[in-house]
């Protein structure tokens, strides 16, 4: 936090920054889905998760107040979930969308169960959960955009998020999910293989797929899916290796060819 800058001034600076970002996004597209996803990607690219502040908070010694607000996320580029969710809400509102912050708890793959904040956005009279924090953490690991928690419904996000559902509007749709919009949602094992086969043909692009919960998987699901991908890749006549990640809660698989 800059010395001498009061809370209201910090809010004004963050608001101006969000307005400028939103203006650039609006210049590039009038499509509402694309506008929302660009705001989501912007935070992944420009904000790092403040792991030290998380540690401070768990010890009851919060040291960086700006990590918990939009100024920290948008101006300083360093924030925890409260700051990232406040920043996403501000960006969404500058783009013309209704967007709220949800407070609850979440189970993350690396952090464990913790107090958490995320968003619900309204697009064309439908509400969707957005957890830019966990996808920002994933971005730091895979070095490319992550969409595991983009536009989820109540059922999907409740697999690793918990909140007082009576306080939020019903999120009953996932049609804006990146995976649905990109035809990367697998309903059957054959469909999964088809998506992986198509992905194996371009080794310069990441391979992504989201699996229906109707598809039964072995315990080592990530390795199982990676093996299918490799089997499809070697059919082209060349050997292949991949690095991959698997989110058992969202059922999202990501891989890159080495």
State mean pLDDT (0 to 100 scale).
Answer: 93
Low-confidence stretches: none
Sheet of most strands:
5 strands, antiparallel
CATH architectural group of the largest domain: Roll
The strand line-up of the biggest sheet is 6-5-4-3-7
* CATH topology (level 3) name of the largest domain: C8orf32 fold
Beta strand count = 11
Q: Give the N-to-C terminal Cα separation.
A: 41 Å
CATH class of the largest domain: Alpha Beta
How much helical structure, as a percent, in the residues?
A: 40-55%
Structural shape = globular
Strand-residue proportion: 15-25%
Structure characterization notes:
- With 258 residues, this protein is of the alpha+beta class.
- It folds into two domains: 7-175, C8orf32 fold (Roll); 183-257.
- Helix content is 43%, strand content 22%.
- The protein contains ten helices and eleven strands.
- A five-stranded antiparallel β-sheet has the order 6-5-4-3-7. A four-stranded mixed β-sheet has the order 8-9-11-10, covered by helices on one side. Strands 1-2 form a two-stranded parallel ribbon.
- A hairpin with a 3-residue loop joins β3 (98-108) and β4.
- The radius of gyration is 19 Å and the shape is globular.
- The chain starts with 6 loop residues before the first helix and ends with a strand.
